[in-house]
Amino acid sequence: MVSSTAQANRKYPDMLDLKPVLGAIDAVLGSAARPVELHEPRFGQRERELVLDCIDSNWVSSAGKYVTRFEEMVAAATGARHAVAIVNGTAALHAALVLEGVEQGDEVLLPAITFVATANAVSHAGAIPHFVDSTWDTLGLDPQALEAHLDAVAERRNGAWVNKQTGRRLRAVVPVHIFGHPVDMAALGAVAAKYELVIVEDATESLGSTLGGKGCGTFGHSAVLSFNGNKIVTTGGGGMIVTDDEAHARHARHFTSTAKRAHAWAFDHDEVAYNYRLPNINAALGCGQMERLPAMVDAKRRLAERYLLAFSDFPWARIYREPEGSQSNYWLNTLVLEREYAAERDRLLAALHGHGIRARPLWTPMHLLPMYRDCPRSQLPVAEDMHTRCINLPSSPFLAESANKV
Amino acid sequence: MVSSTAQANRKYPDMLDLKPVLGAIDAVLGSAARPVELHEPRFGQRERELVLDCIDSNWVSSAGKYVTRFEEMVAAATGARHAVAIVNGTAALHAALVLEGVEQGDEVLLPAITFVATANAVSHAGAIPHFVDSTWDTLGLDPQALEAHLDAVAERRNGAWVNKQTGRRLRAVVPVHIFGHPVDMAALGAVAAKYELVIVEDATESLGSTLGGKGCGTFGHSAVLSFNGNKIVTTGGGGMIVTDDEAHARHARHFTSTAKRAHAWAFDHDEVAYNYRLPNINAALGCGQMERLPAMVDAKRRLAERYLLAFSDFPWARIYREPEGSQSNYWLNTLVLEREYAAERDRLLAALHGHGIRARPLWTPMHLLPMYRDCPRSQLPVAEDMHTRCINLPSSPFLAESANKV
After folding, report:
1. Tens digits of per-residue pLDDT, A8-46?
2. In terms of C-beta density within 10 A (0-12 exposed, 13-18 middle, 19 or more buried), how is residue A9 classed?
3. Is this structure's pTM higher than 0.80?
4. Selected residues 309-348 of chain A with any CB under 8 Å from a CB in chain B
5. Which domain holds residue B379?
6. Domain holding B216: CATH number?
């Protein structure tokens, strides 16, 4: 938060002086080699050991022992009862939506501010993304804005809630815990209950984050995680569906492994299904990484503290702080420019890249992408505002060690 | 082929004596440890080295140097100009169909005898599988039966060929080189040209097979390969789209990596797209495997020769031999029972499993699976016959070494 003293003294020069920003970030990153990427994994002896053991076992494909172990480790880390390892986060969300009953022609509500994979997974399920606004309270979907929007557009027809502007069924809502910061799930739960929406949590960015002491990924009926190369834990590419519902987990496993019926030799399959399971070799890498999850969350939180401190006296920009009541994994640290300086964002990004700092803006909001331009949406003033003035800063856990001691 | 002497002498006992079959297979498998799986990979020092190098580079996710190298190796091995590494064979076929213009509600022709993934990929593209018959000449799709069927059901409407029974557009045909044996692509090409069908080759089982000296995967406009754990070359899970068309390859790359437009920092995407690229760590494993592809094809062909020899005097069963003019990778060796003994197939399978030999029947034909029961299809007498009397035998390349010298 910008301190009141700083606010009182601010002068709003026409062009920002970029030097102090670069200086503050340099102070945080310390001795880290340039260029500094946005988020990079690091692997230790343990990852090497487990991957070699997997190769030596000649079992590198799906359904190996590391898949089971990785699922158990991720379930334990989130607090979910069951976990089903999937080939990546997009595939996990696609499968999760279908498994929750999303059908061709349904609408699925999601924030306009998210990585494109969230909207793509909705499309892959044959459904139509319906974009809603975000809140500065969490950077994620705004439950109050969602409710106000549904109050205006939803209507009950033949026992289902439909969008009265399109006539399509409103089936699910996908909250995304942006950059690891948990959405207000209690408030969202109330709106979802009112409009009978299934909640599928997109926890792809928030492994290790908690809200009221409860792990992200345990608030909806099911949730998805990602272990892409840029995530806090990586398997190269990988994802997970987590749920407390045993029958649901069993179906998820079946549906993502060609729906083959168990038999010593016969190849019978009982539904149109997917080849979406995670290979054993990727799971082996993930098992090694999961052993260090608590240390990585800790390192990322220390790095966030350094950024927060470095920018605490800036009058025209601040580092985004985790929502009240939550512990964020601070997947990506976010610099928020004051609204008056939104037009300076790209000049700052260019300067950062020129300085060897691979910062990036927020994703372009979904409703501004050509293929999602005509999708239904609410008013999106916060999403558009957020997009113009947020910048993600390098956030790899190991940077906490290279950082100068403050 | 069954010799004419044997045919003249055959007596058709009511129940087969299974002992000689087990004996013949035992003679081929020699000292291999029981149970003997249908197909298992083996990894050497090279695979270990490359995977560790990949881990040590901290670049395990998509778009790494091993992905590019793996693509180049696979392109060179098949003779295709371009190769795009995909997360698995099913995803590769799904993407390939969409990239070739298959749309929601189209029909795609494919053999009823194939692994379920072929039909699933058609469904994933929103199209309807349309099953056609196979031929004993290749075990694959029968171009003559296809032509006769299309002559009966296809009709030209508004400049497109449609199935006059359903009114749906006939868009593509997917020949599958079953167990590595090439389909008669010249004959198929003529039928496809007549009915303006795009050919997407399913070469998931036939890496290293050639037809008239040309690699499987280079006959259609594009083709797909698989590197699943049971394939001749494995990446854990993996697939590939190959094509000679540079613009097509470029689009395939874009479409399978979220359609992100190149930019130093901005996240803009220009079509609904997929996260389907192969992670670098899987590609590293594949690079190690590809170095040994010629040796593995050679070993598998030697193993096939042993099976052929071991069953050369059997009056009521034979080992399937590669089609004339082709060099098969003999992905899976196939024992074909004479028609009179089709009813004995499951008794033989049970005996083989009891004996530690993990044989299996052909996949259940697609039109007999519940989810594909109502799909359009031709008469399928050969497919149904084939299913009742083919058994796949253990075919891992290393078995060529453990086999008794004959």
Report:
1. 455 666 778 899 999 999 999 999 999 999 999 999 999
2. exposed
3. yes
4. none
5. 4-42+293-402
6. 3.40.640.10
